[in-house]
Amino acid sequence: MAELKPEYDRTSELKAFDETKAGVKGLVDSGIKQVPRIFHHPPDLLEKNSSVSDDGICVSIPVIDLKGTKKDPGTRQEIVEKVRSASESWGFFQVVNHGIPVSVLEEMKDGVVRFFEQDLEVKKKFFTRDVRTKKVAYNSNFDLYSSPAANWRDTLFFFMAPDPPMPEDLPEVSRDIMKEYSKQVMQLGYLLFELLSEALGLQPDHLKDMDCAKGLAMLSHYYPACPQPELTLGTTKHSDNNFLTVLLQDHIGGLQVLHQNQWVDVPPTPGALVINIGDLLQLISNDGFKSVEHRVVANSAGPRVSVACFFSTVLLPNLRTYGPIEELLSEENPSRYREVTIREYVAYYRAKGLDGTSALLHFKL
C-alpha cells in the first residue's frame, strides 16, 4: 500500500518563503540540506537530459561569427543565411565578435553577484512583486503563486529602454555597469534585428520600424548552489514572451534547449552571447522563425549567474497590434495568428505562468 504523505499547505509555505524577502539565496544561507517541497518538480519534467542525437552524434546550437557584418556585403550575406537557418531550425544561436568587450561582459556578471550577495537589508529595499509601477524589482519567481512548482533562482528585473530608471533607483553596487551593458546590448540588438529582417527577405529596418528594438528589459538571475539538484529546476521549460533575447551566461552552464524533443546543452563559450527568438517574433514571422522552449537545470556547483535582456515594449502605453507581417503572407502561407497587443500577450503569459505550454497556442487562428 502506498505510503500516505502528510498533508502540506502549499499556499502557506509559499507565503512564508516570500515574506522572508531573502529568496532562494536566503534558504541556502540558512544552511538547509534539503530542497523545500514547494520547489519539487515532477520527475518526468526532470528527465530527457541528452545532447546526443539518435545516431550518436553530439548536437550543438549554431555559433555565428558577426565579424565583418558591417564592412563586407558578401560576408554579411553569409551571416544573414546563418541567422536565417538557425532561427528557422533552432530558434537559438550563439554570437561571437558581437562588439561588446569581454571586460564589459565580465563586469556585468560581477555586478549581478554583487547585488545578490550584498547585505539582505539593502537588497530588501528593492523587493516587490509589482513590476507594473515599480521601476526596479527584486524577487524570487515572478509566477511563485501560479506555477505548479517554484524554481531555484532569484531575479532582479527592470526596463532600461526607452524609459530607464533614474540612476538613484538602480542598485548602487551595480548601477554603472547596468547602464553601460544595456547601452551596448541595444546597439547589438539593432544589428541583430537588421540581420533578422534581411533573413526574412525584408528591408533591414523593417523589424526596427515595427518597434521590435524599442524596449529593453534586463533580468539578472542568481541560481544558488542546490543541495538536491535532482529534485528541482533553475528555470522551468518555457519560451520567451518577447521579440528577442540576448543572454549572457557565466561559466557554470545549465541552460538547455529543446531541439527535436531532446534537451541539448548550451555550453558556456567565453566571450559569446546566446541569442534566442521570442514568441512575438515567431508570431509576426508567421512561424517562419521558431521561439523554442528552453530551461535551466539546477546545479550543485553554483552560484550561477546570467543576464537576460528582453527586447519588448510591454510597459509602454502602446496599443499597437501585432500580427503576421503582410509581406510574408500568401495563398500558400496564410496568417496563422490573430492580431494582439503586446500587453495582452504578456498578461496572458504571466497569468498562465511557466507551466510548460506555449502561450502562442492561445492566439492561433
UniProtKB/TrEMBL annotation:
It holds the Pfam family 2OG-FeII_Oxy. Residues 214-314 form the Fe2OG dioxygenase domain. Coiled coil: none annotated. GO terms for molecular function: dioxygenase activity; metal ion binding. InterPro entries: DIOX_N, IPNS-like_FE2OG_OXY, IPNS-like_sf, Oxoglu/Fe-dep_dioxygenase_dom. Its cofactor is Fe cation. It comes from the Eukaryota. Keywords: Iron, Metal-binding, Oxidoreductase. Belongs to the iron/ascorbate-dependent oxidoreductase family. This is Fe2OG dioxygenase domain-containing protein. It comes from Hibiscus trionum.
